[in-house]
Amino acid sequence: MRKLLLQGLLKAPLTEAAPEDAAVEKLAAELKAAARARLGRSLSIREVDAGSCNGCELEIHALGNAFYDLERFGLHVVASPRHADVLLVTGPVAKNMAEALKRTYDATPSPKWVVAAGDCAINGGIFAGSSACAGGVEAIVPVDLRIPGCPPTPVALLSGLLALLRAGKG
Ligand code: SF4
What range does the record give for the signal peptide (predicted)? Predict the structure, then answer.
């Protein structure tokens, strides 16, 4: 036990330092400015897992960690579609989730954007053709932006949302 404590004190921590990333800093500033210009406030996002393997969720959750720090991008994750500007949908749409996705879309006030995040959300990905899969998000609700990747990286997600704010409807 004493040996373990001593090792813990003397050895370097196992976690890696966050990398310096000028590109992420630049993206943060651009997203914040775009959200301000477009909405005059933060962009509110409701994440919808329509049948994902959770790989996409891990990348979306990474946006909230100390390195990416979602809030400084002018983005805010909300608990209800009634408070959302964007539905960020992951996964192929499982047949059992199709009705829930449709209802979530209907509950989101207009104008609203729908983002299909990840290859599965775009066209069913590796689950396409499965008897449990209703297809990509577009098979159920209109999609405004597609962010490819399996899973898409946090930077790809942020770049996609920036494109949405700059070019989107509403
Ligand atoms: S795109 Fe990849 S990571 Fe995302 S739900 Fe599909 S299989 Fe999982």
Answer: none
> Does 140 contact ligand 1 (Cβ within 6 A)?
no
Question: Cα–Cα distance between 88 and 105 in angstroms, integer?
Answer: 11
* Closest alpha carbon to 118 in 153, 81, 71, 94: 153
Supply the range of the domain harboring residue 45: 22-166
Count Cβ atoms below 10 Å from residue 4 Cβ, excluding itself.
8
148 lines ligand 1 (CB under 6 A): no
Mind listing the pLDDT tens digit for each residue in 6-22? 887 887 766 666 656 78
Residue 140 lies in a domain: yes
CATH number for the domain spanning 83: value is 3.40.50.12280
Structural domain contains residue 135: yes
pTM of the prediction?
0.86
